[in-house]
Write a structure and sequence with these properties.
Blueprint: H1 2-16, H2 32-44, H3 59-65, E1 66-67, H4 72-75, H5 81-90, E2 101-102, H6 105-115, E3 121-127, H7 130-144, E4 148-152, E5 178-179, E6 186-192, E7 198-203, H8 205-212, E8 217-222
Parallel strand pairs: 1-2, 4-6
Antiparallel strand pairs: 3-7, 3-8, 5-6, 6-7
Helix pairs in contact: 1-2, 1-5, 5-6
């Protein structure tokens, strides 16, 4: 397990590399270890469909049980987050599991793309202009199809309705994705903080990647233990 844990941390580090300023302590003011812990939430979410099984499994479980098909041809081109996650399964040390099956590449890539759009990571983001940031965030959500709920303090989501079925959304719970109780849609959730130009964001990896790329973001850090104000 120690070997597998080290490998998964290595994959998480490479995924961090797709975030603007991840290697710059002035921009990413958290630590690599805390990022590993936060990204492990993505790896622990059951989203992959193994052949011949009705249940979904997590990326971490897949790393111990399966081997993705070779993507030697694709690996010669520029990498992207989904391709990096696939490579993470291909490169699992053979000592981790002696008996592994292949995951169908097309299904695997679709599952990973959906996984990286699942809002499970919690970050604090410091801003130069909060109002402008929310405007840009709304543009990103509309352009790239992210279901987004924004607000201030605990009022966030209390009167909002699901974008899919129209059901009133529950009040947000600290550290848990805002999810419709009727249809199950999970929302990217960004809460403005009072008195400071910053937000707490419970979002997907892909939304985080787009968010921190904005020039309005001064810095960001993992906030797995943020307490409501």
């Amino acid at each position: 397990m120690h070997t597998l844990d080290k490998h998964l941390d290595s994959v998480a580090t490479r995924m961090g590399g797709f975030l603007r300023g991840f290697g710059d302590p002035r921009v990413h003011v958290g630590s690599t270890a805390r990022f590993h812990a936060e990204f492990r939430k993505v790896m622990a979410f059951p989203a992959l469909h193994p052949p011949g099984e009705k249940r979904t499994i997590s990326y971490s479980e897949a790393a111990g049980r399966f081997l993705a098909p070779s993507i030697a041809g694709a690996s010669r081109g520029p990498s992207d987050p989904v391709a990096e996650m696939v490579r993470g399964l291909i490169d699992v040390p053979m000592s981790v599991s002696a008996l592994r099956r292949e995951l169908p590449m097309e299904t695997l890539r679709n599952d990973l793309a959906a996984l990286l759009r699942t809002p499970v990571v919690l970050f604090y983001v410091s801003l130069s202009d909060q109002k402008a940031f929310f405007g840009r965030l709304a543009e990103i959500a509309a352009r790239d199809g992210f279901p987004l709920i924004t607000g201030e303090g605990q009022a966030q989501g209390s009167r909002a309705r699901c974008h899919s079925c129209g059901t009133a959304l529950p009040a947000p719970q600290q550290g848990k994705p805002l999810q419709c109780g009727s249809c199950g849609m999970a929302f990217e959730s960004v809460r403005a903080l009072p008195m400071v130009p910053g937000v707490v964001a419970l979002v997907s990896y892909e939304m985080l990647r787009r968010m921190v790329a904005l020039d309005l973001v001064v810095s960001y850090q993992e906030e797995g233990k943020v307490v409501p104000l």
